[in-house]
Amino acid sequence: MSTALDAAPFEIAGKTRVLGILAHPTDHVKAPPGINRIARERAKDAVMVPFNVPPDGLGSVVNAFRSILTFNGSIVTVPHKQAILAFCDEVTPQARAVGAANVIRREPDGRIVGAQLDGIGFIRGLYHQGIELEGRSVHLSGAGGAASAIAFALGEAKVARLTLNNRSRDKLVAIRAKLQEMFPAVDVAIGTIDPRGHDIVVNGTTLGMRPADPLPIDETGLTADMVVAEVIMEPEITPLLAFAQTVGCKIHLGRHMLDHQLQLMADFLGL
Ligand SMILES: NC(=O)c1ccc[n+]([C@@H]2O[C@H](COP(=O)([O-])OP(=O)(O)OC[C@H]3O[C@@H](n4cnc5c(N)ncnc54)[C@H](OP(=O)(O)O)[C@@H]3O)[C@@H](O)[C@H]2O)c1
């Protein structure tokens, strides 16, 4: 269907706001077309471009951003998500808790603010599909960037009970301690791969990206009343989701997390 937006080609001009995506390499970044589409939908004169910056150049690039008056901010991805915190003047509580930011904004005075929207994007995706979180029990696998962001967002969403599972158990001890400090009302436990007894089961690991991967959980613990959610976007139906469908579970795709995160990033970047 063609719209008025299609009829008016976008041109970069002197007032165009510049947004970036900081990565190394940038060949496979997915966000620019999505953010540029959102800018057109919101009728904003702004464009996102890739900045392929090796780790040793990150500090000087962020310092240069402070002096670029047409610059709104940048998405931050691999390998800069953790390192970027050291170059921010201010960091949101979510980014501080996770120890990583995935977006930075330049304030009018040149200060750089870092935020972490992975977890909030995931939660928004669930809400949008009609899946409530307050008072519910969640089994979460993983302790990397995505899973820890989701864990803190689940705390904010007031789940009643959160069970953490990961191959490397030491990471879970630290995440649990921080969750208990920030969300004392949430019952946080370190569990096993068995998801029995939970309302919502989340895979926050990379298991499922490669065909030979084992499932992240003991699939015999799934029951039809559960929601099974993924962070993995490719393949869209992971072996875990395929199995969950055979059990009769409601499934939730990884792409919902990205879709909602792009909208949140666009808001944060002033679009
Ligand atoms: N949908 C979205 O918007 C979105 C956003 C961000 C990320 N993601 C996806 O989320 C996934 C995780 O990303 P991430 O940034 O969190 O990665 P990460 O920081 O590298 O964490 C990887 C996690 O997977 C676990 N893992 C990896 N290989 C394993 C194996 N062979 N056996 C058991 N566990 C294993 C790791 O366990 P250990 O701690 O033991 O190493 C860790 O918990 C990726 O698929 C990524 O594409 C999606």
Automatic annotation (TrEMBL):
- Which keywords has UniProt assigned to this entry? Amino-acid biosynthesis, Aromatic amino acid biosynthesis, Oxidoreductase
- So, what pathway does this thing act in? Metabolic intermediate biosynthesis; chorismate biosynthesis; chorismate from D-erythrose 4-phosphate and phosphoenolpyruvate: step 4/7
The UniProt entry's coiled-coil ranges are none
- Quick check: keyword Translocase in the entry? no
Shikimate dehydrogenase substrate binding N-terminal domain boundaries: 21-104
UniProt KW Oxidoreductase keyword? yes
Q: Which PANTHER family match?
A: BIFUNCTIONAL 3-DEHYDROQUINATE DEHYDRATASE_SHIKIMATE DEHYDROGENASE, CHLOROPLASTIC, SHIKIMATE DEHYDROGENASE
Q: What is this protein called?
A: Shikimate dehydrogenase
Q: Which organism is it from?
A: Mesorhizobium argentiipisi
